[in-house]
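Changelog note: in this version the structure field was regenerated for every chain. One regenerated record is shown below for reference.
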Amino acid sequence: MLAPLHVEFVKLKRSLALVVALLAPGLIALFTFFNALRMKTPGSWDVWLTSSAGIWAFFMLPMSVTALTALVAHMEHGPRTWDHLRALPVPRWRLYAAKAVGVLALVALMSVAVPTLSWAALQAGSAIQPGIRPTGVVDWGHQAGVLGRMYLAALMLIAIQLWVALRFHSFVPALSVGIGGTFFAVVATSAKQGVFLPWQMPVNMLASEPWRVQTALGLGCVGGLAVLVLMLVSLSRREVR
């Protein structure tokens, strides 16, 4: 398993995947920076960083996963290298598992970058306008817990998007699923049934109702692992077109 993982991470380093992984957190940080400069009074660190986490979970996470999975899949679809890879003396499931691990690692990197870059943006804004420096102290443990739960709740979303991206040679199905899922997640934010929509599960980690948090976290994490296993079994048994 180590050899496919090594090859996959070498491919990711040579692709635009890292750029995509830093773009979304960077845009959130940029928005936070300019938004802070508009403020007349300072807010707390908790409010600012929770707001960044909300933007991440609500929109940037599902759209970033859509773009990232399409890019990772296209690294093989584009040059049509799947036939070569499947001819190697390596169990097929390991090839797809390496793809999944690579995507999960990049999403984890983005999850860490969101509060880190937002913190840096607020520090930069405070250097320009000292009067808007956030109050209190940064509770990094709390922020790590929030982003960690969002990551686990997003596992089903990631698994579905990766499965579609790997299954179809064209990137259109993956983009369509991602855009459609994000659209319905946005318009159905307040709907109780929205907690069962994979694209809305991460943002439910900020819900005030405990049942929404627990339901979305349980379904997103356990369901995501189940979908990943099904993806490995399905793709290993059939040709990708």
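Spot check on this record: The CA atoms of residues 208 and 214 lie 11 Å apart. The mean pLDDT is 87.
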